[in-house]
Amino acid sequence: xxxxxNNDELPPIPPKRYFTIGEVGExxxxxxxxxxxxxAEFPQLKPVKRRGNxxxxxxxxxxxxxxxxxxxxxxxxxxxxxxxxxxxxxxxxSQAKVDSGEIKSMIRDLEEVIAKL
Length: 117
Description:
The chain is mostly helical. It has helices spanning 4-9, 21-28, 32-41, 59-74, 79-88, 90-116, and strands spanning 48-50, 54-56.
């Protein structure tokens, strides 16, 4: 999982359904060519491909990319080590999906409160 200090440095994930590779690059502070490379190296990372082979990432993909970045850049894992860590601990990935669901719910609640104000 991401360390708390890294969550502050990265921008929050907007409440959108799909993100382009450029948007994901900005959200995760990673260049698009690195994202394409990670797709080949990490089987869990499978963005939706549409017309013209364009990639569209979902929220769980962005969270997964942030986890991969944390493993590689902050925790010092190699690509192989990070791949093994990701495959050994699917619990963390499912926990991230649950957390993002809880976050979505909180965002909706806050938007309702803002609308009432």
